[in-house]
Design a protein that fits this description.
CATH topology: ph1033 like fold
CATH class: Alpha Beta
Number of helices: 2
Largest sheet: 6 strands, mixed
Number of strands: 8
Order of helices and strands: EEEEHEEEEH
CATH architecture: Roll
Shape: globular
Structural class: mainly beta
Helix content: 10-25%
Amino acid sequence: MIWIEMSRDNIHGGGGWGFTKCLWSPAYKFSSNKNRKISWLYWNNILKVQQGDIILHLRGKKHFASFVGYSIAATDGHETLERPPQGGKWNYATSYFRVLLKDYHPFKTPVLLDDFFLFIKTS
């Protein structure tokens, strides 16, 4: 299976939780009134990643977002009580979904997301 990791920030969890090191997300978010934990299907997809799957890395915002390389999933997706060193706005969580990655290969030339969709549209 092929997955896409989307990251907008440079820190992305920091250390072994950084960009190209692992995929991660909180295991839950809070309901709009912040009194109930809820599952989010987008984040739950991390649990479907299997060892050996290919991860395409998409980095940046808006018209600057680019595919910059790919990695291989070193582990299956799982839930952990470990915490990212710099969890940012997701630091509220007590558990996280995580997939360790290996063999990062940067692209010689990043592929702008806009160019990718233009190519698909004109093909």
